[in-house]
Design goal:
The chain is mostly helical and 76 residues long. The chain is 72% helix and 0% strand. The chain contains three helices and no strands. The longest helix has 30 residues. It is elongated and about 50 Å long.
Length: 76
C-alpha cells in the first residue's frame, strides 16, 4: 500500500511539473487593472485545459504525499 501511494505521488508530481512547464505565462497585463475579461483561460482553450490538469495533479500529489507519510510513520 505504501508503494502504491509513492508511485501515485511520483506520477502526479511528474504530471504537475510537465503541465506547469507547458503553460504560457499567466500575465493578463492591463486587463486585471481595468476589469476587462481576458480571452485566455476560457473553456475550450488549451490554457484552460492545462490549468485544470495542473490543479487536479496538485491535489492528487498533495493527498498521496500525505497518505504516504501517514502510512510510513505508522508502519515503522
Amino acid at each position: 500500500m505504501i508503494i502504491a501511494f509513492a508511485v501515485i505521488a511520483l506520477l502526479a508530481g511528474a504530471a504537475l511539473i510537465v503541465t506547469e512547464a507547458m503553460q504560457p505565462a499567466k500575465s493578463d497585463g492591463f486587463s486585471v487593472i481595468t476589469g476587462m475579461a481576458s480571452s485566455r483561460f476560457q473553456q475550450g482553450t488549451k490554457e484552460f485545459m492545462m490549468e485544470k490538469v495542473s490543479r487536479y495533479a496538485a491535489v492528487v500529489w498533495m493527498l498521496s504525499c500525505a497518505s504516504y507519510s501517514y502510512l510510513w510513520y505508522h508502519s515503522h
